[in-house]
Give the backbone structure.
Amino acid sequence: MAERDFVVDTARSVVADLAPDELALFEPVSRAYLRDPKKVLSDRDRPGAVLGSGIDIAIALLSPVALGVATAVYEHLLDKTGEALVERGGKLFKRLRRPKDAPEITADQLDGLRALAIERAKELGVADDLAEKVGDAVRTTLEREL
Amino acid sequence: MGSGRPELLGTPSGTTLRFGTLVALALATTWFVAGSFASAWPADPFLEDASCQVRADLYLTSTNSVDPDEAKWALYRECMSGLFLPRIGWLVGGVALLLLVAAVVYVVLPRWRVRRSRLELLDHESCPALWSKLEGPLGELVAKAGLARAPEFRLDPYSTRAGGVAFGTRRKPVVCLDAGLVALLDRDRAGFDAVVLHELAHVRNGDVATTYATLSVWRAVLSVVLLPYLVFYLSPLLDWNLPNLDSPITAGLLVRVFLLVLLVYAARTAVLRSRERYADALVALWTDDTDPYRTLRAEPEHRRVLRWIAIHPTRVARNAAMSDPKSLLRNGFGEALMSGLAIQLAWSHLVAGLSGISWYREGNESFLVMRVVWSVAVASLVCVIALRGAAYLRAGGVGRWTFVRPGLGLGLGLAIGLELDLSRAAARIFGNGFVVLGAAILVLVTALVCAWAGLVAVRLADRARGWLGAVSAAAVVVVCLSFLGWFRELLVAEVLWRDHLGPAFTLVSGYGRVAGIVVVPFLLNSDRVLTAAAVALLWLVPLLLGRGSARLGVLAGLVGAAGWGVVAVALSFTAGGTPEAAAARSAWELVAVVAVQVLVAALVARRSELVTALLATWVVGVVGCLGIWALHLDGWQVDSVLAARPSQVLPVLGVVAALGGAVFARGAVVPRRGSGRLVVAAVLVVSAVAVVWWPKAPRAAALLPEAGPEVVVNTDQAVNTWQYGGGFDQFMAVRFASDEVFKAFEAEDTARIAEACEKASARSEEAAAFPEPPGAEVAESWRAGLALLVPGARECVKIYRDGGGDSQVMLDGFIKSLPDFERTLTLLNAARESTLPGSG
């Protein structure tokens, strides 16, 4: 549950910062992402369906990118600081009390996470300037919440 | 903004009819395949059929020659009637299974799609935030599309594309929006509206139900009909019995099934592309924008080949539909071809099934009923072509081929459909010159019928939906019935020439070369009343709708007929007094009528329309008919069969003459003065007499040889049928019985000899009572053998059972019959081998 909460809450925060018009759509997209992340992130063109519109242009949605980036950050944190930090992060997002013995996250670590987010966003096909903004939003979110 | 929108909305698109033809084809193909399965279980109808042919002495071989002896046919049908009940069970059960599977697919498929793709329901409970944002805009779009009830909206959260799709059932249509499309609501409202309206247009047009019902039926056909059918026929190949591939039936079947599936797929995608263009045109209408998708241009163009099988039209075609909606009304060659092909194949398969239960046959009204069924179906397509073409022209479209081009497609589809009939798997496609010539005529006449129907539709204009439209549609049915309904004779064109036209041509040419030529069209028309009625409709309907000039037509016809009268009187002085001379003279008189018809048509066409020329040639024909009667009449009799019924040929030749005369048309139209209804009424009354009544010609020279057509039978096939129909069993029973007698003699056991002779006597007498083989040579040897064995076995019984008897007759019976039976066996084997695949 911790991973789900962390990913969804972080991604929602990014979407709220950068694409608030997508917030209503974020809810069903995040549900779909949790069921099948690869399917949401894959940019497969759909062959013309019977009685479909025949319009196959891809729309740049931030929600799947934000979810993908949040997942990458979560997995990185899991590697670097262990389950405890993540558990703490999850609890923070649930507005629970911060444990006194939880490790602090440093500015360098936040910069690293921002770089990771930018890299992952680019991997997901996001333009450089938007990827930078995603990285900034992730950093801000982590800084605010952790 | 392009024109043609009122016509677009008020004119039938024809796609429902085209889907209907595909469903009819599916049902008829199922009907046909079920009939094939009936041949495998519970009885073996092949053996039963062979047995019935033997008993009725009616061997149905590949020569297509029809035995005129009705008693044989009655005996054959009575014998076969025992097989009909299980066959009917198969036919009804097959169609019921198809419909059941199709219904299940139709109902289950949308649910499975929702489940498989995990499509989210858009409502207050499932997606409260998103729905509160979408509810208003979607409601507005539903209202704009004129839908009384909103479809169920769903979201594909996995797709970042700006697309949508409509699916579901008639009761519960579903419109699914991609997540990418929903995002456009705030970024590109016009693009969002255009795509959603496109899907709502599908719902409004009823595409969801018709499309998915058709797809369900064809998926059911593929899974429970065609696949089992191929396995059923190709199962010998699974045993690596590859020589079966050489069988013309197997190869023909494979080719036909492959082409059938291919053509159905192509027809289906063509109809779907058409529906997409209609939906786009409606979007353009609702948004008042000829390019509502301008911000969403990213779809790749299909390559040229893929365009034919793509579900969606090209960008150019979509733009054309939106900027110029009337272009949708233009009938395409390909769509008409596919529809004609589907109708033809469906009809052929239906008839094959009905033949299997012996309903479709000579001697009842089945031929007429099925011809009417076919004509109504084809006339429906012709009416759609005419209505759409007329709407296209009204909307400002131009094109001389508006009706002819789809007519050619329809005719070609009908001709090809006849060749792809699965029940004719053994026949080569367009296998002889007669069929090709007949098919070419069918295509040409179909195009002309469509052009005529188009002319009528143009005149009808908005009255097409009223009683005038209904009457005109009935006229189209009659015209199709007469001018196109003969197509079935294409299949037996070679036999028709061999058995009827050829002998008549040879015989009558002896009376005079011209008479020989005239007799061919004379015999080709088997129903002169129907033909004359159809020809009369060709000028009557347009005339009543305001085309042509009745007065000019009648006047020109009467003047031409007067000229013909002079020629005919002159001809009467040259004739001899024999019946043959009378036939030759009447042929010349008919030729003179046609010559006058051509002349009058050419002159009238320069002054008026084709309709007037048709009326003029009709009048020339009617007066010519009355004149020929007058010149040949003696009391209530005439001296020539050709003179008795001139209306057998003159109406049709008048049409040909009018079409020839139309070449000289200058496009000048003389203004009508008055409706000319009284004139037309008078022409109709006189015409009715000339067409319906005819004098008898009891002393006339015959047009057909007295002997009638010779029944041509493929002897090897017939002998083979005789073997399967019980003949070989009889042969083997006799041979076994004789062998037993020889063994008994070797054992020198008198009791055994007596018993064996009794059996041999019984078997040989049974065999003698069984019908002889249908080949002269094999029948002779079989008969000779039995002629020795029957008395020989009888004498043997007398000698060893009763005392007395002639031992020499006995010995001759058993020993001298051996060479005859050996010869019989050799001939039977030769017949069987000659009918094997690849035997040539």
Notes: The two ends of chain B are 66 Å apart (CA to CA).
